[in-house]
Design a protein that fits this description.
The structure holds 2 protein chains of 2 kinds. Chain A is mainly alpha-helical. Chain A has one domain (2-178, 248-273). Chain A has 11 helices and 4 strands; from the N terminus they run H-H-H-H-H-E-E-E-E-H-H-H-H-H-H. In chain A, strands 1-2 form a two-stranded antiparallel sheet. A two-stranded antiparallel sheet of chain A has the order 3-4. In chain A, strand 3 and strand 4 (106-107) form a beta hairpin. By secondary structure, chain B is α/β, with parallel strands linked by helices. Helices cover 38% and strands 19% of the residues of chain B. Chain B is built from 12 helices and 10 strands. Chain B has helices at 46-52, 97-103, 120-131, 138-151, 156-159, 169-181, 199-215, 227-233, 251-254, 258-263, 270-280, 291-304; strands spanning 3-12, 20-30, 35-40, 82-85, 88-89, 104-107, 187-191, 219-223, 236-241, 244-249. The relative contact order of chain B is 0.14. The chains are: A mainly alpha, B alpha/beta. Bound molecules: adenosine-5'-triphosphate (ATP) and magnesium ion (MG). Magnesium ion is lined by residues 46-47, 109, 191 of chain B.
Chain lengths: 277, 309
């Protein structure tokens, strides 16, 4: 049912990557994305891919789980691929037999194919790397990391802790709401609601008996949570201490060095091995 | 309707890393006319089992996409799963599950959280309208809703045009139950119907179920964590443990197995505890663990002066 949709898809095992500080993981992801975008030839990208593969191997997350994240954006990938293939302004048109593959604006060129592959490779790595982050970091850790990284904004009087609180509550509530939806759907099905048959109007109408209890439940939860926070005198004040303090360890140093090495490597590739862009 | 389950298995999130084997080879028969109790430690699969009974959880073979698996050479076929509710075969995808659901009413845990309509009347009539083949006349709907609300002990004239969200918790629960029994199902299944009610509310609810059972609902099945409630009301009890059925016995025999029940993490009814205490003192009371019978037997013992009654 709804449960099959992986969402905030933390994969619970212990590994080097899981144990890294979330801040360093976020920074590494940013660094990685920068490297992927800096790379202007396949050598640079191959370097990034190598680092990604090492990351995946060190995370002990099965490859299928990581690849699953691609499914959601397959359409986007295909769309970009086709656009680039057809409309990239290259010079050497592909000739199959005697026929050049060119019709009006559509012009399939060798450069276009090359560029498309490059782009696909890039997108692919962006998605895999970000899903590696969410697969190996619990939502709580992730928000803690983001809050900590956004600390400089506090000096500009930006309410970072409020933002972090809102984020962590939202993340915390997603699974509960999914559970609740499942339960309410079952209860209404037992009362004869039919979600599978009938025309679109009927189906939309069938959603009302789910949406209303769900909304009311969400309000109730929000109110209860607010009361509970009030009862514990939560004011979201400055200088709150944390139950779990984030600390840097030797692992994080390694990751940091790897990130720096990656960016340096990519830049060297760009300079010495030519560019295709 | 007779309910038969054989070799019933169910796994949540199959084929993923979070798979939970919730039912393991469940075999259970509920005869028509029974007031059937289901008990078991939390997480033992009770709710999972009862959701099978009206096709809310579909067996693999009843799902649209299902294709029978071909056996490899030398492989032994797993025992055939049977799940039959009256004339409905729940292993068959051609079964009309909506029709089945109109015959098997299901009251979920905390049913008050499924209320949605603007008025109590609308909410109770919801199931009725859904299940009927042709549009019903307003009079028929009104009669049915009135009867349902009165059965659960609410004053129709008082509540029918109120918003269900303005009622008290106990009243909401009654409205939700009315919304299920309004179609007069032949089997009524309830998941912890008395959870969170006050003692009097619990008694009233049980009385209400007995009333329904006596007048038109042939079979009542309910899940409970309250052993007194079970000892007091059921004709037969199934004990679930870790997804399997351990015992199916009338309460009189079941609560004699004190050691087994305790080892399954279950409690005993007060009467059973007292019987055990008296036994330690050398007094044998042979009762069926309802309070009434227990008191009678003890009185008889006291009048008789001594010995076994
Ligand atoms: N929607 C679900 N997704 C995944 N696992 C589930 C789901 N519902 C139940 N389970 C798991 O299946 C097992 C049986 O759960 P079930 O709800 O049937 O127990 P129960 O006997 O009704 O318990 P309780 O007395 O607490 O209501 C539990 O281990 C539970 O964690
Ligand atoms: Mg349950």
């Amino acid at each position: 049912m709804l449960k099959d949709v992986t969402f905030g898809q933390y994969y619970p095992v212990k590994s080097f990557v899981h144990n890294c500080d979330p801040r360093i993981k976020i920074l590494f992801l940013i660094g990685f994305i920068v490297a992927v975008f800096l790379a202007s030839n396949f050598y640079g990208l191959a370097l990034c891919a190598a680092v990604l593969v090492i990351g995946i191997l060190c995370s002990r997350v099965p490859v299928q789980s990581i690849l699953r994240s691609i499914k959601g954006i397959l359409f986007l990938l295909a769309f970009t691929a086709i656009l680039n293939l057809f409309f990239y302004a290259g010079e050497t048109t592909v000739v199959i037999g005697e026929i050049p593959l060119q019709w009006g604006v559509v012009n399939i060129t060798y450069e276009g194919i090359y560029f498309m592959l490059f782009l696909m490779f890039r997108l692919f790595m962006l998605i895999l790397s970000s899903s590696l982050l969410t697969l190996t970091t619990t939502p709580v850790n992730l928000t803690d990391g983001i809050e900590s990284l956004l600390t400089p904004l506090k000096w500009l009087r930006f309410p970072v802790h409020v933002l972090a609180l809102v984020m962590s509550i939202a993340l915390r509530m997603i699974p509960s709401l999914m559970d609740e939806t499942d339960r309410i759907m079952n209860a209404q099905k037992a009362r004869g609601t039919d979600f599978e048959h009938g025309n679109i109007f009927k189906r939309v109408k069938a959603i009302v008996p789910i949406l209303i209890p769900l909304l009311i439940g969400a309000m109730r939860r929000a109110e209860e949570l607010g009361d509970a926070m009030d009862a514990r005198c939560y004011t979201g004040s400055e200088n709150r201490t944390k139950y779990k303090k984030l600390t840097f360890t030797w692992r994080d140093l390694i990751v940091f060095l790897l990130c720096a090495a990656l960016i340096a490597g990519v830049v060297l590739c760009n300079v010495y091995l030519g560019s295709i862009l | 309707m007779r309910i038969t389950a054989e070799h019933l298995n169910y796994t949540y999130n199959q084929a993923s890393e979070f798979a939970v084997h919730a039912l393991r080879d469940v075999n259970l028969t509920v005869e028509e006319g029974e007031f059937f109790g289901i008990i078991g430690h939390t997480g033992s699969g009770k709710s999972t089992f009862i959701q099978h009974l009206n096709g809310l959880i579909l067996l693999p073979s009843a799902q649209k996409k299902y294709k029978p698996k071909k056996l490899k050479k030398g492989e032994i076929a797993p025992p055939k799963t049977v799940l039959q509710v009256g004339e409905y075969d729940l292993t068959d995808k051609k079964t009309d599950f909506r029709k089945l659901r109109s015959k098997v009413g299901m009251v979920f845990q905390y049913p008050e959280y499924q209320l949605f309509a603007e008025t109590v009347f609308e909410d109770v009539a919801f199931g009725l309208k859904n299940f009927s083949e042709q549009p019903l006349s307003p009079e028929r709907i009104q009669t049915a809703v009135r009867q349902a609300l009165e059965t659960v002990g609410l004053n129709y004239a008082e509540v029918w045009d109120k918003s269900p969200f303005d009622l008290s918790g106990g009243q909401k629960r009654r409205v939700a139950i009315a919304g299920v029994i309004v179609t007069r199902p032949e089997v009524l299944v309830l998941d912890e119907p008395a959870a969170g009610l006050d003692p009097l509310g619990k008694q009233e609810l049980m009385a209400l179920l007995h009333e329904i059972h006596r007048s038109w609902c042939k079979t009542v099945i309910f899940v409970s964590h309250d052993m007194d409630e079970v000892a007091e009301n059921c004709t037969k009890v199934a004990v679930f443990s870790e997804g399997a059925v351990q015992f199916v016995l009338p309460p009189k025999e079941l609560f004699q197995k004190q050691a087994e029940l305790l080892s399954l993490g279950l409690d005993l009814p007060v009467t059973a505890k007292l019987v055990a205490l008296l036994k330690q003192k050398g007094i044998d009371i042979d009762c069926d663990f309802t309070k009434k019978d227990f008191i009678q037997k003890v009185q008889k013992y006291l009048q008789g002066g001594n010995g076994v009654c």
